[in-house]
Design goal:
mainly alpha; 8 helices; about 65% helix; elongated
Length: about 180
Amino acid sequence: MSDKNETQDVKNYSAVNTTKNTMGCGIGRNSSKVFKEKYVIALALLQYKKIVKEVINKISPEFLTDANLRRIYTKIIEIVNSTGENMCHSIIRNFEDTKDIECLAEIMCIDINSCDKLKLLTELEMDFKKAKYENRKQEILKLLSDENVSEEEKSLLSIELNQILKKLSESFLLPTHA
């Protein structure tokens, strides 16, 4: 990640902390995906086994778009599931790549102790699901305009598109209550 992007993330974080439009821990809806993905890993590194299990159950590695963070998160999940261990120092011992260790050290510096971790997890999960639905919606719209797609396939795609639009309107566009 470039210094420019990191600087923008810090600006987003600072701007969000001065407004009421925050997620459970000062992450704004406009923060970058990578910034949010780092928070997922920070939650997965918590010492609270119940929360770690919730993170692993609710946020699949496929939601993470950054390949390095997805690989790190996948390995953390494997470690937690195979050993039951969720202590940061034990998990880091399982990583050999210096860049991964540096990334984990940076993530461990994220202060999430004072935030509502379950609210943060819920909001991150919703953001990732919304992004997944939006991406699929765009794929379907592109396929629907493709002349090489059969009418039968277009009909099935239209049904899927309607289901996605319904999920987006029901789950993500309803006002949240603070």
